[in-house]
Amino acid sequence: MSPAAAAQPLNEGAAGTVLGDDGLARPPWAAVDPLLREYYDSEWGLPVRDEQGLYERICLEGFQAGLSWATILRKRPAFRQAFLDFQPDAVAAFTEADVERLLQDPGIVRNRLKIRAAITNARATIALREREGLVDFVWQFQPRATPQPVTHAEIPTQSPESVALSKALRTQGFSFVGPTTMFALMEAIGMVDTHLLDSHRRGSSGVWTG
């Protein structure tokens, strides 16, 4: 699920942008909560092309499943501490004792399957180095066109590319990488631009112009 879908009130599902007190237009999910607003303005939708950053985002999208993105964002400092800044080599060395330790950490989402998935995905990330590497592997699924939504209701929750990416990652040993989760990842890292057309962030990734 994307931050938009996770954070937006149900009665605003078809809403367009909201004009902020700074005169900038944002979607409703990023217009009120200061943390989400900062994330939207400075990070969401910008390209991520380094292995560690991409691995972190895959993990956090997996941890979000069933939760709001605001919850994950507030816990991100604790996640980074618990998972050693999401360095794949470090997390890949985690043992079952580390799983039990993390299950006692109130700062993160204490879900055994999701914690194990982060470790599994670290090992899969390392394995991909023998091929093109995680970054090139993921970015090869960038679509030829991106959505052009006017309202939040026009933003899809998955795409043929996110379905294909999900399937491909699973064949490489990744878990918690379903099609909807992968579409949210694609939004977050700029592979698609789902900023509303009149948002001040539309086109800011540099990946999509015009």
Count of individual helical segments: 10
Distance between the termini: 26 Å
Structure class: mainly alpha
Order of helices and strands: HEEHHHHHHHHH
Give a count of the beta strands, DSSP E runs of length 2 or more: 2
Which stretches are poorly predicted, pLDDT < 50 over at least 5 residues? 5-13
Note the overall shape: globular
Range of strand content: under 5%
Overall pLDDT metric: 92
Strands of the widest sheet, in order across it, are 1-2
The Cα radius of gyration reads 17 Å
Fraction of helical residues: 40-55%
Largest sheet: 2 strands, antiparallel
Q: Which features characterize this protein?
A:
single chain, mainly alpha, 47% helix
Provide an overview of this structure.
This protein has helices at residues 3-7, 34-42, 51-64, 69-82, 88-92, 96-102, 112-128, 134-139, 160-171, 179-188; strands spanning 18-19, 25-26. The protein is an all-alpha fold. Mean pLDDT is 92; it is low at 5-13. A two-stranded antiparallel ribbon has the order 1-2. The two termini are 26 Å apart. It contains ten helices and two strands. It is globular.
